[in-house]
Specification:
about 375 residues; mainly alpha; Rhopdopsin 7-helix transmembrane proteins; Arc Repressor Mutant, subunit A; 2 domains; 16 helices
């Protein structure tokens, strides 16, 4: 067998291995779904990557109509990647109907091309679609970096940079190569490099997922509204994660007691610019120990969420106090540690289901004033 034939055979073998690994990743992740958008999107992302391994293979690019579902999974995967990044690294993320429109906007082009629509042959259409793919990859990468320093989940911190940067670079490099060289002009050596990179990424992700505690990484399954959403005194109860591996050392009770004093008595959450690094420096601890204590000991997945629970409890107490009935809500927000009114209003509404004004009026009704 000649050199080109060996390369083609090796490319097929690598793509087949990558597809098998990605489908295993999808099945393993979907088993952990239980209402978690990150798990469902992660499984769909893996299936889409497997479809991409098929779509990007060398050879004729004139598929039959029945190939449409594979094309949709392949082309729409950039949108799934972007949504997965948000669901994975933003604990407040919720899927919205308009998110489906972004996915549909990507898959319309290959479907129209498959059905013979003439406009899809225009070079500008191809550039726009590929540009959208690169943009979504960059947005996903931005979401990866955002709030990385305040992420308290060690498994998620390890997974986020590898998975998202590797996939983002893979998408960006592939689309860029197609734009510069042309889809039909990509040499076999680049196809082989592409399939090898796909297998490597899939293998490492599969290995990390098998080793990781997915319940901790993906977050607890959704529950109903917090029972103490209108409590004016204490932060809403956080369920313990209870998912740490047996060999992991538990949170230090003395450290948890110190944290409770700093927040409940010293009200450290009011300090401007307070980060996990600043707090760790004040306590004389390495950051990883403090992250572990707040995550595993108190059940929080993000440092800003931890601070905001205390800030919101402070604000609730002030809003329910008849003696502060005339204090402007902006003043209460700033005194509680929020930097502006907008983030305070959004966080308050998400936590209680009411605006600060509505909460104050409800408290006045309970107090009989």
């Amino acid at each position: 067998m000649g050199g080109p034939g060996i390369l083609v055979t090796l490319d097929i073998a690598l793509r087949g291995a990558g597809i098998a690994l990605l489908l295993i990743v999808a099945a393993a992740t979907l088993r952990q779904a239980r209402g978690r958008p990150a798990a469902r999107l992660g499984a769909l992302l893996a299936v889409g990557a497997a479809a991409y391994a098929v779509c990007s293979s060398p050879g004729p690019h004139d598929p039959p109509v029945w190939f449409a579902p594979v094309l949709m999974l392949c082309t729409g995967n950039a949108a799934i990647f972007w949504l997965f990044a948000q669901a994975m690294f933003d604990d407040s993320f919720r899927l919205r109907p308009w998110h489906a429109l972004v996915w549909l906007g990507l898959v319309v082009w290959p479907l129209a091309h498959l059905l013979g629509a003439g406009f899809t042959s225009h070079w500008l259409v191809g550039v726009l679609v590929r540009g959208a793919v690169i943009l979504l990859a960059l947005l996903a990468l931005a979401q990866t970096v955002r709030d990385w320093g305040s992420d308290l989940v060690e498994g998620r911190r390890r997974l986020r940079l590898f998975i998202l940067i590797a996939v983002a670079m893979h998408i960006a490099a592939t689309v860029t190569a197609e734009l510069v060289i042309g889809t039909d002009q990509v040499p076999m050596s680049l196809h082989l490099l592409n399939s090898g990179a796909l297998v490597a990424i899939a293998a490492i992700i599969a290995m990390l997922l098998l080793q990781a505690d997915l319940d901790s990484v993906l977050g607890p399954a959704p529950v109903g509204p917090a029972a103490n959403a209108v409590s004016p005194t204490l932060p809403p109860a956080r369920p313990p994660l209870g998912t740490a591996a047996p060999e992991d050392e538990p949170a230090d009770p003395a450290l948890l007691a110190t944290l409770d004093r700093l927040m409940a008595v010293d009200r450290l959450y009011r300090q401007e610019g307070l980060t996990i690094g600043v707090l760790a420096g004040r306590l004389g601890l390495p950051e990883y120990r403090l992250r572990r204590a707040i995550n595993r000991g108190l059940g929080y997945r993000n440092f800003n969420e931890y601070l905001n629970r205390h800030r919101l409890a402070d604000a609730k107490q002030a809003l329910a106090d008849p003696g502060q009935a005339e204090v402007p809500i902006l003043t209460i927000a700033l005194d509680s540690g929020f930097q502006s009114l907008g983030p305070f209003n959004r966080a308050f509404k998400a936590d209680t289901g009411m605006t600060p004004t509505e909460y104050r009026k409800a408290a006045e009704g309970r107090n009989g004033t």
